[in-house]
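Supplementary Methods. Inverse-folding protocol.

Structures were first reduced to a discrete structure-token string of length 132. This string, shown here, constituted the complete conditioning input.
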């Protein structure tokens, strides 16, 4: 009888420990979700805000590898990966837009340069082949 009570107490303690770990991982995922929500709440992010978000992201990533990775079940791991991907997607989209604007600017400058050069070449050819 004592063995049965000891076994039941051990099982109860184990289940409490697993429940506490689940709550801890849930709180961690909540912090990660808040980061992603903060990132997506802004239409554009300044360089200072990007650095602040990156510090939060790096801190959460370090926590994940040191503490939470081993505790996560499949569902929690799926959530973590979703939040991580959404974070990267936001900054990849912003960076792509910035690069697109830079390419447009360079393209316009190249176009203007080609127009000037073609005008010079056209004038030169007219000067060479014009009959006097």
């Amino acid at each position: 009888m004592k063995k049965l009570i000891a076994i039941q107490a051990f099982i109860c303690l184990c289940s409490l420990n697993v429940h506490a770990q689940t709550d801890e991982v849930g709180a961690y995922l909540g912090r990660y979700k808040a980061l992603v929500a903060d990132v997506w709440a802004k239409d554009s992010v300044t360089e200072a805000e990007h650095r602040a978000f990156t510090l939060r992201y790096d801190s959460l990533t370090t926590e994940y590898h040191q503490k939470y990775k081993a505790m996560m079940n499949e569902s929690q791991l799926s959530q973590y990966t979703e939040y991580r991907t959404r974070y990267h997607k936001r900054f990849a989209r912003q960076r792509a837009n910035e690069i697109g604007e830079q390419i447009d600017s360079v393209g316009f400058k190249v176009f203007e340069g080609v127009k000037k050069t073609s005008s010079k070449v056209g004038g030169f050819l007219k000067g060479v082949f014009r009959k006097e």
